[in-house]
Design goal:
The complex is a heterodimer of chains A (90) and B (157). Chain A has 90 residues and is mainly alpha-helical. Chain A is 74% helix and 0% strand. Helix content of chain B is 66%, strand content 0%. The chains are: A mainly alpha (90), B mainly alpha (157).
Chain lengths: 90, 157
């Protein structure tokens, strides 16, 4: 059974490494991410949100759903810890 | 439970430091839109100030100030503020979390309403992060009455 696990891990790892071949090189100005959303955020942040910190405007406004999910994850972690390790007096 | 560690130097230093740490945490949350920072970072600083208090005194000292019930309320209210602001935007006719719709409620133009919406959700995130940090720490560092003499975190002398 251990052999099967090892083979599965190696195959998955090889697939993932194979997938990275198609990635644009790091910091490539011609990559799709640098051509569409990034310039728009950089140009329009102050105009659209009146927030000088671009990181915050992307985090809390353009990607607000994502941050809502992150906060939910933290909340769920807290609730799970309360349920699992808090000692309630009986 | 963390064994009481009675050292007058540590206690006095923490007593002096904690208000400034908490003020700094509030500053990081409030200034998240203008400078590096935001709800997550500020919430962690606020939570760390309470953890410092419980290390310098003991966990019960913190529970006296922020009871477990109140801490749980903080946890939930933070997330409620975030999703509530999103739902208010939805009710005002925009998309979920489209803060510019808040200008119907606030006496500001739609662009500045976005900045205010961002500030609102940062406050919510900060509350949740602070309460969850403190809650997890207190749960891990506490022992129940019916457990034996067991000290945690190496705070016994």
């Amino acid at each position: 059974m251990k052999i099967v696990g090892l083979i599965a891990v190696c195959l998955t790892g090889a697939l993932l490494i194979y997938g990275t071949i198609d990635f644009p090189s790091w910091g490539d100005p011609q990559s799709p991410a640098s051509l569409h959303v990034s310039p728009r955020y950089i140009e329009k942040t102050v105009e659209e949100t009146d927030v000088p910190n671009m990181v915050t405007s992307v985090l809390a406004d353009y990607r607000g759903y994502d941050t809502l999910g992150e906060t939910t994850v933290i909340f769920t972690a807290g609730m799970s810890c309360i349920l699992l390790i808090r000692r309630f007096s009986r | 439970m963390i064994a009481p560690f009675e050292d007058v130097v540590i206690r006095t230093a923490c007593r002096l430091l904690i208000p400034f740490i908490q003020l700094y945490g509030l500053y990081v949350i409030a200034h998240g839109a203008e400078s590096p920072g935001g709800g997550f970072q500020g919430g962690v600083i606020l939570g760390a100030s309470f953890i410092l208090l419980s290390l310098a005194y003991n966990a019960d000292e913190v529970r006296k100030r922020v009871s477990e019930k109140r801490n749980l309320i903080f946890c939930s209210v933070g997330l409620f503020i975030y999703s509530g602001i999103g739902a208010v935007c939805l009710a005002l006719g925009g998309n979920y979390l489209n803060y510019s719709r808040l200008h119907h409620l606030l006496p500001v133009d739609p662009v500045y309403a976005r900045a205010l919406g961002i500030f609102g959700i940062e406050v919510g995130v900060g509350m949740t992060v602070m309460a969850v940090m403190l809650s997890i720490f207190l749960d891990l560092a506490s022992k129940h009455e019916d457990e034996g003499e067991m000290t945690s975190l190496g705070m016994d002398r």
